[in-house]
TrEMBL record:
Every Peptidase S54 rhomboid domain range: 194-331
Bilayer topology annotation: Multi-pass membrane protein
TM segment ranges: 148-173, 204-226, 233-252, 258-277, 289-307, 313-333, 345-365
InterPro entries assigned to the protein according to its UniProt record, in alphabetical order: Peptidase_S54_rhomboid_dom, Rhomboid-like_sf, Rhomboid_protease_S54
A family per Pfam: Rhomboid
The name this protein goes by in its record: Rhomboid protease GluP
Keyword annotations: Hydrolase, Membrane, Protease, Transmembrane, Transmembrane helix
One Gene Ontology MF term: serine-type endopeptidase activity
Gene Ontology cellular-component annotations: membrane
Annotated source species: Mucilaginibacter auburnensis
Compartment annotation: Membrane
Similarity comment: Belongs to the peptidase S54 family.
Any GO BP: proteolysis
Amino acid sequence: MGKATQTISTTGLSQKHGLVTAFESVKSLGWRIRFVSDAGVIAYTNNNGFSWNGEITVKFGDDQLKVECNSASAMPNEYGQHENAVRQFVATFEKLKTAITEEEVRLKYPLYEKDFVPPYEDTLKPDIRPKFNLITGFWVFFRPAKNYFVTPVLVILNILIFLVMVESGISIIDPDGQSLLAWGANATVATLDGQWWRLLTSCFLHFGIIHLALNMYALIFAGMLLEPFLGKAKFLSSYLLTGIAASVVSLWWHDYTISAGASGAIFGLYGVFLAMLSTNHIERGMRNGLLSSIGMFVIYNLVYGSLKSGIDNAAHLGGLISGLLIGFLYLPALRKPNNARINRLVIAGAIILVLAGSACTYIFLASSDRVIYFKRMESFYQLEAKAIEVMGEEDNRPTAEQLPALQQGIRYWQEGIILINELDKLNVSSGIHSKNRQLIKYCQLRIKSYQINYYAYQNGTYPDQKQVFEINQEIKTVMDELSSR
């Protein structure tokens, strides 16, 4: 079984012009195309099983075209057929390259392009598929290796931060929000009051060991699959950028919440992966299975998060959507992994896109009425504390002092109502307006409670315990409703 090869110059010919000319040459000769790509074409000279059949490979390089013919059948009369097939192609190519106009190239190239094979199925290109590590043993998940370097570093960093937090006295099972806030969690007032760094630090904090374990499991799974495709720089930038975007979306969506965890960044990684899986960049054999499993994971977690309280679905969606955008932005670099310039450009583009968008959103939110509302609410909480302190000291005062103290307490609650009415004029969410109505009701019930005590002491009697109990029950109900918001 023989072989023939010839190289011809394509200097002065654009890649698209050369490709269209090659494709048209094959069609003109009546050969059957096996596949086409942006690297060339593979075709068969004859589809008849009773005559000689050659496999023609046309591969484009730097200013040259390599034509090679190999036997695709074992026939006794194949002598000279290889050389003849190559000569036929070269002659046809030389004839058509001047006959085909640029306008024809512009019209015909997209028709061929839609049939290009995915990069990882293109045998005309070097095999650039990522090499996956065969992971065996529990501790290997935490050991940096080739194509799996950034993932274990991020996992170890998250675990170390959690251990330091626990060592400082934070609960290992269920740390409270204020403790996380002190360590850098994301929160409306704190973050938007100039503490922008919380957008990133919150991605490395967790509400207990179970929260940490679940997130690290998801991160390891995503990293094992995605890091070999993206490489260290693009994988790390994806994690950090989508984490920041997730934190910003959480701020935008929630009136007031303390959020922390790597899940926003992890959803971002899955978003990047989904973007890649929606194209032909990943070979078809892997693509369908991964698209199904990752799609189900994302849908399940979003649905579960919408049904269960305490899960920041806004951050999940923010991470997912920003990940999809970054994934599509990275595609040109993924198609040309050896082009350092394109890789630098897409990473820089992703950084500029996410940080600029996050900065604009942050500036808008920081100057919004919502932030003004929460800052001025600190004055309300101070009034509340003073008023409650008056009632707490009631039993330790002589009757002569109790009446002025109760009057002062009533004034504190009245000032609270005035403040809430002022704040209700701000442009805030319907949820905050609803909360304001509950706060006014709460203040009014407190005033009623103080008045019962005031009038009883004024008349030299004791407060009616039935009335006091009923008022306290109403106050408790309102407080429970407020705490659930």
